[in-house]
Specification:
alpha+beta; two-stranded antiparallel sheet; 8 strands
Length: 286
């Protein structure tokens, strides 16, 4: 067993050294390990010791292409794990919690003896066929990445409009407004028109407008913090996602009624911020 992978799955003393051909990690974009993938040649059912809560899926390939894929729940005692007449298979073993995150299936529904994958999620059959056609473990990883991406997109599409709005707004705030409407559509699986309708209903403004306003607020705060230190307006605007200085100037004037340099001058000299030819209703509080 590769020592670098020892943290991510339990060693199986009765069969691991004999039948594991090669292994590879599957990670999320931020580097978080999702699962360990391996290519196996089985000789019979596997005598397994208790593991660390891993859930695995077996995808037949080669001579066994066309046989059902099986999902196995965590092994909790010394027992045989059935291979269901499969000899050649790619196997993906999910770290604790990762299977539920993507498949949204209760662990109580999974047997360590194996359940046909199409009984759990019949719409994954295209990925079973693609896995069977993978020439090596690297191609298999590509298939698994596509499958998990598809599962995430489906789960997002099942969000209520209110939950969808909250998740996107949070992501937008986290990115400081640097997110296009198309990126939102790709992130959720919804079309841009649907996102616009949802935001207008639950936020009151369009997603594009919210992006612009969040980015503007972050940029204005950067100006307040950095202008006294000699920070360049061009550098600040580019760092906050504007195309160029003129793009930033137009947006800033639209929201404040003044150009950025005038704003900085007023702030640094302690002058009141005055906007010419603009009537603003002033709220009077008791």
């Amino acid at each position: 067993m590769n020592n670098s992978l020892g943290l991510f799955f339990t060693y199986q003393p009765f069969w691991e050294d004999d039948i594991l051909k090669d292994e590879l990690l599957l990670r999320e974009k931020d580097g978080t390990v999702i699962a360990v993938m391996g290519r196996f040649q089985y000789r019979g059912d596997l005598l397994c010791v208790p593991g660390i809560g891993l859930t695995c899926i077996t995808f037949p390939y080669g001579e066994d292409a066309g046989l059902p894929a099986y999902c196995h729940g965590p092994v909790q005692t010394l027992e045989y794990q059935f291979v269901h007449n499969i000899r050649y298979a790619y196997v993906i073993r999910f770290l604790p919690g990762m299977f539920g995150r993507y498949f949204h299936i209760s662990g109580l529904e999974l047997s360590s003896k194996g359940t046909p994958l199409d009984c759990l999620l019949p719409n994954l059959s295209p990925f079973v066929r693609q896995a069977a056609e993978a020439k090596d473990l690297f191609q298999f990883r590509i298939v698994m990445e596509r499958m998990l991406s598809d599962l995430l997109a489906r789960r997002r599409s099942q969000c209520s409009p209110l939950e969808l709005t909250w998740k996107l707004s949070y992501e937008l705030l986290y990115r400081r407004g640097n997110m296009t409407v198309q990126e939102m559509a790709d992130y959720t699986g919804f079309c841009r028109r649907h996102l616009r309708d949802v935001f207008l209903t639950y936020v009151g403004i369009s997603p594009k407008q919210l992006c612009n306003q969040v980015r503007f607020q972050n940029t204005m705060q950067s100006i307040l913090l950095e202008s006294a230190l000699g920070g360049s307006l061009t550098d600040i605007s580019l760092r906050n996602g504007y195309f160029d200085q003129s793009h930033f100037n137009r947006m800033f004037k639209r929201y404040t009624g003044m150009c950025p340099s005038k704003f900085i001058e007023s702030v640094q000299e302690g002058k009141p911020l005055l906007v010419k030819n603009l009537s603003i209703e002033k709220c009077i509080y008791p």
